[in-house]
Amino acid sequence: MTRTLTDGDRRAIRERYAAERDKRLRPDGNEQYAEPSGRFVNLLDDTYVQAQPRESLDTDVHVLVVGAGFAGLVTGARLKQAGIEDVRLIDKAGDVGGVWYWNRYPGAMCDTAAMIYLPLMEEVGTVPSAKYVPAPEIHAHAKRIATVFGLYDKALLSTGIVSIDWDEASSRYVVRTDRGDTLRARYVCMGTGPLHRPKLPGIPGLQSFRGHAFHTSRWDWAYTGGDPTGALMTGLADKRVGIIGTGATAVQCIPHLSRAAKDLCVFQRTPSAIDARNNHPIDPEWFAGLEPGWQRKWMMNFTTLQTMGFADEDLVMDGWTDISLRIRDRMIEIIKAGGEMGPETLLKAYEDSDDEKMSEIRDRVDSIIVDPRAAAALKPWYRQLCKRPCFHDEYLQSFNNPNTHLVDTDGKGVERIDETGAWVGGVHHELDCIVIASGFEVGTSYSRRSGYDVTGRGGQRLSDCWADGMRSLHGMNVHGFPNLFILGFSQAANQIANVPQNYVENGLAIAAIMSHADASGAVQVEPSQAAEDAWIDFITSVTRGIRGGMDCTPGSYNNEGREMGRREQMNSSGHPGGPIAFFQHLEQWRSTGEFEGLEFR
Ligand code: NDP
């Protein structure tokens, strides 16, 4: 039910938001986090698949796609659809799937609806079991894309990149790997994603802990028992488990830990906003009756509504479209009452509807949590888009279990860790096992996140080129780096809620560019400096969107509360008209066959 708020309520909410933010601001921002070292030095290893010995390759390849997650898979599929056959995926993981390969923690699922989240469903024949599907089902879909499009055939899995260097004489990238391969690629597509390098919380003494410890993205099933499909983790029946972090990952695995562990301490720095999920099975008969082309229609409908556009119906109808529809409808109310269309009205509509939404989310905590002190601590005091919104129907309920203890750190984080446990507010919590749910490196430099650099024309390094912020045409091509394609969403649609839609749309453009080059005998494709500059000017001319900014509690969505300088603005910019405008622009741009701004040589 929609909450009615007085002006006084709204003022009190703002004051509380400011106080909660100030409490959490810290001078070290992203620097607070640590890279894996010491007892965690093997954190980046693949614990799921043992790399098999193989001969090193020394060969040419037409398209090398780095990263076999949805970015790489969808792009590879689009290339195959366009008749480009010589495509080789490369990934340090032992199988395809990207984040869905690495994240096998209990309860892992995606809370973007499967109908739009699983790319190329019509092409590969996937029927989702439910509105929101679990990680193993998503991983199976990724594998199906690889199988149906023949992307396994040449894939180099369990293989890490060491270097990618442009060779002007041959108009190819020379790519070296940690398996001794030398690959000479006409094109390189970089689909390495923003969430693949786990980070550690900067808690003093973490290294000294003598018990068991692992990061959620490398779940230790041998220790916990159970399995990713949800079987009880019997190995924890006699264990005191602590989990550090209460972000989107922790929210999903805590109900499972609560069910299995003898005792569970949840160390909370900032509570997540937990809205209802309302999952339900998908009726296969209804699904079979969908018209061909349904998935693009659903994706476009979702994105239109999620970015406050207009559509006759809400096909997905979930928490994401609810957020946007509330803001849109409030804007209409304000304009009908004589307000002007413009940024101020948008901001007011956003703030009003967000106040109501977040009040409902806080009320929901009270309606579920029995202990009033725990309920107070579990209430989020910030705007919903300051952090990744969470949707779950069992998370809050876990705190009613007698074995599950909320250790609220009042925004400060865990004080320190010693050989036997964790300290908060002068109290020691004895632990046998620490589950680290502190997330991934998002705001650090490109080379730090990937572990290697790309060098372009004249030996220029991509990390240097982007030191003051990303530069590109369409978020895809970079001047000085011929034949390189970035698979992402920055400087493009900037679509965050349904990330795979970016790959589905951008893949069509990439396939068109390569086909055009091949047909015209060109061996180099690169945006002109002028075209790149013009694109950057265009996308940074207007700050679009209302995602959390300086008044938010710190986190990965807002540069950990540090000022968004030119670099951060460049990295997070997108088409000023929003994702749909970008997708339309890209479609028109590629359909002319002229690819304005790109130089083919
Ligand atoms: P996050 O970065 O979102 O969360 C990290 C958590 O660790 C936060 O709660 C953070 O607190 C906490 N933390 C960090 N340092 C300390 C400390 N010193 N003491 C105590 N707590 C600490 O990582 P996640 O893995 O949860 O999520 C990463 C991303 O993955 C999400 O943004 C989302 O995009 C994606 N994801 C999506 C899912 C879905 O579809 N449902 C599920 C899982 C992940 P604080 O908030 O105060 O910084």
* Ligands (ions, cofactors included): NADPH dihydro-nicotinamide-adenine-dinucleotide phosphate
As a percent range, the share of strand residues is 5-15%
Rounded to the nearest angstrom, the distance between the terminal CA atoms is 61 Å
Specify the structural class.
Answer: alpha/beta
How many DSSP-defined strands?
19
Number of helices: 20
Biggest sheet layout = 7 strands, mixed
Write the CATH homologous superfamily of the domain at 7-43 and 199-277 and 352-436: FAD/NAD(P)-binding domain
What portion of residues is helical?
Answer: 25-40%
CATH domain class of the domain at 7-43 and 199-277 and 352-436:
Alpha Beta
Explain what you see.
The chain has 601 residues and is α/β, with parallel strands linked by helices. The protein has a domain at 7-43 and 199-277 and 352-436: FAD/NAD(P)-binding domain (3-Layer(bba) Sandwich). The chain has helices spanning 7-24, 70-81, 99-102, 114-117, 121-124, 135-148, 221-224, 248-260, 284-288, 294-306, 319-336, 343-368, 372-377, 395-398, 446-450, 462-465, 500-520, 529-540, 566-571, 579-591; strands at 58-66, 87-90, 161-167, 172-177, 182-190, 212-215, 240-244, 263-268, 274-275, 390-391, 404-408, 416-418, 421-424, 427-430, 433-436, 454-455, 484-486, 525-527, 598-600. Strand 1 (58-66), helix 2 and strand 2 (87-90) form a beta-alpha-beta unit. It starts with 6 loop residues before the first helix and ends with a strand. Bound molecules: NADPH dihydro-nicotinamide-adenine-dinucleotide phosphate. Residues 110-111, 195, 201, 203, 244-250, 252, 267, 269-270, 388, 413-414, 437-440, 555-556 line the site of NADPH dihydro-nicotinamide-adenine-dinucleotide phosphate.
